[in-house]
Amino acid sequence: ATLTRSWEGVGEQPERFIRCKDVAEAVFSAFSLSPQAVVEEVIIRPQLGDLL
Fold first, then answer.
1. 24-33 residue pLDDT tens
2. Are the C-beta atoms of residues 51 and 17 closer than 8 Å to each other?
3. Within the chain, what is the greatest distance between any pair of CA atoms?
4. Which residues form the domain of 34?
5. Into how many domains does the chain fold?
6. Percent residues over pLDDT 70 in the chain
7. b/e per residue, 31-41, with b = 16+ CB within 10 A?
8. Element (H, E) at 27
């Protein structure tokens, strides 16, 4: 999860959330691959496990 307004008041530490920049870099990397490669799925999770 990325830290957005929907998480306000939940009580999780901001450090637990995935940085938006990390998601953007993953998407950019997927689009930057050669035509011979295809990304069918991208799963990004917090390193310490899912929130809530």
1. 999 999 999 9
2. yes
3. 45
4. 1-52
5. 1
6. 100
7. eeeeeeeeeee
8. helix 20-31
Q: Following DSSP, what letter does each residue of 1-52 receive, concatenated?
A: -B--GGGTTS---GGGSBPHHHHHHHHHHHHTS-TT----------TT----
Amino acid in the structure at residue 21 = K
Cα(25)–Cα(48) distance, rounded to whole angstroms?
A: 20
- Scan for tokens 């899912």, then name that residue: 50
Closest among 22, 26, 20, 28 to 2, alpha carbons compared: 20
Question: Token pair of 4, please?
Answer: 């957005």
Residue type, position 17, single letter: F
Closest Cα partner for 18 from 50, 52, 5?
Answer: 50
